[in-house]
Amino acid sequence: MLGARAWGRLRFLVDVVVLYLASSAAVFADSSVLHAGKNHILAAGFPLLVIVILYARRGPDERMYGSLLDTATHVLGVVSLAAMLTIALDSLLGAAHPLGLALRLWVFSLVYLGAARMVLLSVRRQAIRADAFATPTLIVGAGLVGEHLVRRLVSEPRYGLRPVGFLDSDPLPRPDQDESSFVPVLGGPEALVEAIGQTGARQVILAFSSEPDHVLVDAVKECQELGVEVALVPRLYEAINEHSTLDHIGGLPLLSLRPTDPRGWQFAVKHTIDRSFAALMLFALAPILGAIALAVRFSSPGPILFRQRRIGRDGHEFELLKFRTMGVEDATARFVPDDGRAPGGVEGNDRRTKVGRILRSLSLDELPQFLNVVRGDMSIVGPRPERPDYVERFELEVERYADRHRVKSGITGWAQVHGLRGQTSIFDRVEWDNWYIQNWSLRLDLRIVAMTIAEVLRMRG
């Protein structure tokens, strides 16, 4: 089992080792500084300074599912700050080679620490997918939220939490074929200590429960005494995002909700960047677009571009553009996806051309949508747009489906980079899309673009 504490100790040890290796390499890279005592002091102190800054606050790779991009950015910021402080100390101490040594310390530490952190994170992300390394987890609350939480953890082992039991005095009845039905109810919250001993749980998650708060507070204290980590799903979780801030009034915590405003100035900046970037891409990719257009034209009879009506922001209907990947002959009847599934991919008979198969496998058929972005119908990143008849159906069947239309549709999106492409769960798509809107930032857009490129290059994960 790869618990958070064991992972933290391993990461700290690796950080110390690689930083002193980097510092040694920085010193030995220039033989002229080997005999300067003040340089040795600075080189020995630099790793300690980086460690202090690095652990002064929680880093992105300490989260449940850390991002490689966020980790690299965090390391860059920490090492750069340490290097700037070192230059200032160099000047005060009158070292012989202040700027040169500081720059080498910055470069070597950035490379060594960045590579080590990313390797460790990648290894951990792969390891925790296996039950042997996943953290056994108890869920307090076997209601709708608890059931949904278990289904998510079971279907996505990347979180590294393995549900081993529910604790609930009054659990809801569960369908026999539901994924969560294989997770037993071990009693009420009063059986917490016994359940931890029985299952070996190292994590407890408080989902919504009918138990009074004082019972749950006692459960948290019991977990802390046993060294078991505790997390909770907060009330009104649909309205909480990463922009929310925690304050205190006396000893009372106060969570301030800061909703995303799709009509605010931040989104105006986003749309300006989108259109500028799309125009630049159309210009830069003009030769490739021309070559693809010729390949489509001569691969089979029919138009070069495929046009289809889609629904975008505020229910606005627009014409989405793609390179045609299918033959126009022998068109099949309207496709009807299975219940709970979105349309997409190959619908009905496979009419893809040879060129179309290649274009789809590399997502090159989506490139004409840069024109949609320039026109203002779409963004680079956002929920994928759907056809009008499917929108009408899903708005009736799927809770919060219409909320996706608060923002412009995107060429790529948070749901797509998590594998929700083609005929996948429409409920999961809605959940991911609404999460993206609630937690939107330019940084998140950049992360999604990077993940999309990795997905196209088959480097996901």
Describe this structure in words.
It is a single chain. This protein has 461 residues and is an alpha/beta fold. The chain has 3 domains: 122 residues, no CATH class; 99 residues, 3-Layer(aba) Sandwich (Rossmann fold), CATH 3.40.50; 192 residues, no CATH class. The chain contains 14 helices and 10 strands. Strands 2-1-3-4 form a 4-stranded parallel sheet, sandwiched between helices. A two-stranded antiparallel sheet has the order 5-6. It has a two-stranded antiparallel sheet with strand order 7-8. The chain is globular and about 75 Å long. 32% of the residues are buried.
Helix content: 40-55%
Mean pLDDT metric: 86
Radius of gyration: 27 Å
The total of beta strands comes to 10
Order of helices and strands: HHHHEHEHEHEEEHHEEHHEHEHH
Low-pLDDT runs of 5+ residues are none
Look at the helices and sheets and give the structural class. Answer: alpha/beta
